[in-house]
């Protein structure tokens, strides 16, 4: 499968532009948009609580729980479609995932700020597989300490998959910025493995 290595210093970011075809992507977008239990959630940041600027839903193995942005989240049971997509992603990356965080960006004002996926439940050097369906949004990376390393960014097209691995989450942050352009809604699925189960 065609791939492009975006970052290869202090961790790796690999981009697969055509993981799913246009038709498959549209089919999955419609299913997930209709069926997932989308919710507006709060985030606690330096003691202050805000609404997250997007909708989210978290699915995984039975009884799995996860501390995400100051909230204890309880996993919902996998849907058939999520299991089907998970199996295809696992074939490509040779790891098995026990959960997925789904993000719905309704328009260009929905976003996700600078962060690393470094929750301790994910373990030391997690592999995270991130699928994009629907409207194209730009994904940015910045190094946390080394100013000599340039920021990187990439347009996440429908049907594309990003793998983040190695020490990436220790050294780099990523974000999906807002845009004034009119963009169709976008669904993102980030498959993760929770190591420390809270149950
Ligand atoms: O929407 C995306 O592509 C990124 C989502 C993300 O970074 C996350 O869920 O942690
Ligand atoms: Mn992230």
Task: Outline the structure in words.
With 199 residues, the protein is α+β, with helices and mostly antiparallel strands. It has a single domain, classed as Jelly Rolls (Sandwich), CATH 2.60.120.590. The chain has helices at residues 22-35, 80-93, 168-171, and strands at 4-7, 12-16, 39-45, 48-60, 65-68, 71-74, 76-77, 99-105, 112-115, 128-134, 137-143, 152-156, 161-165, 172-176, 186-192. Strands 1, 2, 3, 4, 7, 8, 10, 13 and 15 form a 9-stranded mixed sheet that branches. The longest helix is centred in the first third of the chain and has 14 residues, at 22-35. It is globular. The N and C termini lie far apart (37 Å). Manganese (II) ion binds at residues 115, 117, 174.
How many extended strands? 15
CATH-defined architecture: Sandwich
CATH-derived topology: Jelly Rolls
Specify the structural class: alpha+beta
- As a whole number of angstroms, the C-alpha radius of gyration is 16 Å
Number of domains: 1
Q: Which sheet architecture does the biggest sheet show?
A: 9 strands, mixed
Q: What coarse outline follows from CA principal-axis ratios?
A: globular
Our measurement of the CA-to-CA distance between the termini, rounded to an integer number of angstroms, reads 37 Å
Bound heterogens, unique: 2-oxoglutaric acid, manganese (II) ion
Question: What are the low-pLDDT stretches, counting only 5+ consecutive residues below 50?
Answer: none
- The helicity comes to 10-25%
